[in-house]
């Protein structure tokens, strides 16, 4: 295929601004899918995505479009996820493109992820086409939105395309803009092959699909290819494209996007970011790859039933293969037994993994409170990272305790600036700057400890701004802070899984809060249960759960036995997610109460 007739592009947008709908609409208008299929939202095909309505994993599809110049173009749409946790996947997809459609909701306007995604596209030197979507809404602010695009992102608003993805309005303009404004890929067909591996997918029947974007050279069925970083050689069994169904083809040339099948059966043999070349005529240099995704949030996951441990291990292994940004390692806890310490890109990523493990594998889990990674410098000069509060060494040996710091951008109406500034101040935030998007909306920038934002900052922001504020963050480094490990003792014994790292200035407060919280979560037993928070050997807070066994059937006066049974059954189910620690039963919710800041 002549590269002059190829266009590679992504659609980037803030969540819910209509990216999937526009993608489907482009498929529909180019005849890749039917009206009926359009309705079934083709590109989001992971179950979790359907359920939550968000895009997690990037996908790609090749479209054929006949332009008014009479030529037929191949448009490769590389889908990107929209949530903060998945920045990494976004930049990975963008590296395979020459252009991007920047989609903005005609009413909501520029939001935090619009800005973050636009910057990611600018960093990759992509041609950006602003697209205002949802022009069919009864109330729109199209002119204001275009002004925001210009002031915040520095993009020319005159070239913006106005569409309704849902109603299919002006989709032709969008397709024409892709052809006319996004540069064609460059690269010589007879140069040594260099193809960027930007994704992979396991198929139980065909093996591993390696998704590539060719930069130079040509690849054909029967060729022997080499993964330049991985170092292994393989014969090409099949090549093709998704359109959106799999379609075999004879060869792929410069600029084209498609898949290669080599019979590789294990996903870990294909590294995302690697370069594919020919074994017989290798390229001199690999393409720049990707940085490894950084896991920023960790938590323990334990099977409620110890017998599920092996099953859980198998499932985690499978999951990690499909999702290189998830990690796991066995750990043991006095309180919870055998389990795993798992690493995630962020909180949403964590929830998605947990949901997948539970719904697909039927393993009930107890999850400990998530924490971020910390850096410790010992007096001896040793520097290392820890991702479990239990690994904090004695205070005596610590020279410096460092925590990750994030730069956070909020986009909100100017009435909400005050409350958000207060919220950030309460969380040890450092004010950086305010920029006005228009007369009523502003972008507020802060530097905040990651630990103070990952858990509930997003929810707090939504409640303070009645749902209208948005945020985005990026970790920028580690910074020393006055941090200490806080232990929790239940009936005199330390419960390792409840330990947390807190800031000294806030420790007493947090200790009291946590003890109160645990008192609420742990039900009464036949004996008294003291709950204590301690730093080093010093007790900083205490609550006591008095002795008494709650009789759940007490409410049922009279003899309705079926109602009584129901209640007892309910109590039994409630017990399922509990762990006995010594003689005290601690419910799952208690482990997460560490997070609560109210
Ligand atoms: P993520 O996958 O989470 O990134 O979301 P998305 O950006 O792909 O959004 P999606 O396409 O799922 O659309 C979000 C919502 O907006 C859905 O309820 C769509 O039906 C609606 N929507 C999309 N385009 C339009 C439009 O042109 N007009 C109107 N009125 N609604 C639209």
From TrEMBL:
Amino-acid positions noted as binding GTP in the UniProt annotation, renumbered to this chain: 16-21, 133-136
Annotated localization: Cell membrane
CDD domains per record: EF4_II, EF4_III, LepA, lepA_C
Keywords associated with the record: Cell membrane, Elongation factor, GTP-binding, Hydrolase, Membrane, Nucleotide-binding, Protein biosynthesis
Single GO term (MF): hydrolase activity
Topology of the protein relative to the lipid bilayer: Peripheral membrane protein
Main location: membrane
Enzyme Commission number, as recorded: 3.6.5.n1
Domain Tr-type G per the UniProt entry, residue ranges: 4-186
Catalytic activity, reaction form: GTP + H2O = GDP + phosphate + H(+)
PROSITE patterns: G_TR_2
Gene3D superfamilies for the chain: 3.30.70.240, Elongation factor 4, C-terminal domain, Elongation Factor G (Translational Gtpase), domain 3, P-loop containing nucleotide triphosphate hydrolases, Translation factors
Main EC class the enzyme belongs to: hydrolase
Family of the protein in this entry: Belongs to the TRAFAC class translation factor GTPase superfamily. Classic translation factor GTPase family. LepA subfamily.
Function: Required for accurate and efficient protein synthesis under certain stress conditions. May act as a fidelity factor of the translation reaction, by catalyzing a one-codon backward translocation of tRNAs on improperly translocated ribosomes. Back-translocation proceeds from a post-translocation (POST) complex to a pre-translocation (PRE) complex, thus giving elongation factor G a second chance to translocate the tRNAs correctly. Binds to ribosomes in a GTP-dependent manner.
Protein name: Elongation factor 4
Species the sequence originates in: Alienimonas chondri
Species lineage: Bacteria, Pseudomonadati, Planctomycetota, Planctomycetia, Planctomycetales
Encoding gene (name): lepA_1
